[in-house]
Amino acid sequence: MEHYDIIIIGTGAGGGTLLHKISTSGKKILVLERGNFLPKEKANWDTIEVFQKERYHTKEVWKTEGDKDLHPGTGYWVGGNTKVYGAALFRLREKDFERIQHAGGISPEWPLKYADLEKYYAEAEELFCVHGKMGIDPTEANRSGEYPYPAVSHEPRIQELHDVLQNKGLHPFYIPLGVKLNETDMLASACIRCNTCDGFPCLLHAKSDADINCVRPSTQKNSNITLLTGAKAVRLNTNPNGRSVISVDVELNDTLQQFEADLFVLSAGAINSAALLLKSANTIHPGGLANSSGQVGRNFMKHQNAAMLGISTKKNPTVFQKTLALNDFYWGEADYKYPMGHIQLLGKANKDMLRADAPFFTPGMVLEEMAEHSIDWWMTGEDLPVADNRVQVINGEIHLDYKENNTEGFNRLVNKWKHILKEIDNGDSFIPHGIYMRKTIPLSGIAHQVGTARFGTDPTGSVLDIYCKTHDMDNLYIVDGSFFPSSGAVNPSLTIIANALRVGEHLLERIR
Fold first, then answer.
1. How distant, in Å, are the alpha carbons of 108, 273, 288, 408, 473 from that of 456?
2. Maximum CA pair distance of the chain?
């Protein structure tokens, strides 16, 4: 059996970034990825293939409440879900790290503060080529410097919208985007500002993802790294006293193989990382590995999410639409003291996207007319950590139980935004997420999965210490969205990336 210094399980925002950070250590590193490289093919930009046929999503089926089938909106690829994300790379707000009273309960304090992550946020923005402009978002935390790349400009219809919102006293700002774009010389730009970015794989490899920005450069430049694709980790095995992981069982090429290492990093995503710990139960750890607290799999969060079309009599010819966001109601408003959430533009919808959730009898001409006249919005609110919102493994299957919570503030945000859009004549009617947009089952939308192995200083109430090492195991780390104690109300990817850089720095000290 071959022995490695470090084994990393998963190559997404957490695992891929961590690999980048420790790649030059000279240590013998094995990277296990259950998926393969996402194929570079014309279907990358085919809306019917991507949205209707869900070509790049897993076909596996989980279970949810009542033993109902759940088809998760996730994919297994080198780079994880960053292959198809919208590359909106936000920092959490400084106050997100504090204890916050919401209408629906308490968002707990983090064991670290924003200041502890700021330099890693800056490093993450450089690594993932983030474009933005500081000083516009009223909720923005202190930054050590400007974004590494200039903001992605608005097209005319969106610039018009920006100006109207600004004249209304609001503070729209540029979405921080991880794209390889050079607007001063488009002939030299990898990104071409196409309409197949948000939710699509990038055929040009011009979207910053964990595969292109981290995994491929690391494996190509460093002979100490071995990447195995199609390699699904199915069990972690411990030494006799249960304090250390000594090996991992892997399904590879239709055989079960075992690999040993001194250090293990689990980065399979908040749901699958928790599931693997639970599947690895043994006589010393009957409730699953690293689960003396009973918290493994619990406190699952995925955000409150809604998409909305603002339909106007005015056409919207925008191609690359995902450039504008607004946080004016992130912490509430004058007559509402509780947080509400975040607003941003989606990638531009087309008729084939709308077809995915439209009634089957809706004429294509109607969908096309709607798409041509819509401005497409995405709203995010914070859901709170609840113990019964959890990942379980029952009869070898993943069960994901989740009940919505803290909905009052978010519902207020949605209604507030409808009212504002009507006031500025951006939309004459609004089509709610559940009728026309693709994700009609809220639980299937797990792109923002966090919280199933939260970090903390108290081993009885958390799974990980502040460096994301499991309290119970001397050599097992978890580096993905699992560590979040709370979800905030912005996309979690940049925080996962920044934390991976922070933990990577710690590991370099440990293995030196």
1. 11, 18, 19, 28, 15
2. 70
Domain range enclosing 136: 3-511
Instruction: Say how many domains are in the chain.
Output: 1
Structure tokens at 275: 């599931």
Q: Is 396 left (phi over 0), alpha (psi -120 to 50) or beta?
A: left
Segment 443-468 shows an average pLDDT of: 96
Tokens coding 368: 């096309």
- The answer to whether 64 and 401 are in contact (CB under 8 A) is yes
Q: How much is the pLDDT for 352? A: 82
**pTM score over 0.70:** yes
Note whether 495 and 12 are within 8 A (CB): no
Closest CA to 120 of 503, 455, 456, 479: 503
DSSP state of 319: S
Distant-in-sequence, close-in-space partners of 449: CB < 8 Å, separation ≥ 6: 269, 270, 271, 300, 301, 302, 481
Query: In this model, does residue 403 exceed pLDDT 80?
Result: yes
Q: Is 230 left (phi over 0), alpha (psi -120 to 50) or beta?
A: left
Rounded Cα–Cα distance for residues 207 and 152 (Å) = 13
H, E, C per residue of 19-45? HHHHHHHCCCEEEEECCECCCCCHHHH
Cβ burial, residue 164 (10 Å; 0-12/13-18/19+)? middle
* CATH number reported for the structural domain that contains residue 110 in this entry: 3.50.50.60
Instruction: Specify the pLDDT at position 1.
Output: 74
Cα-based torsion angle of the residue sequence 131, 136, 142, 143 in order, rounded to the nearest 10 degrees: 20
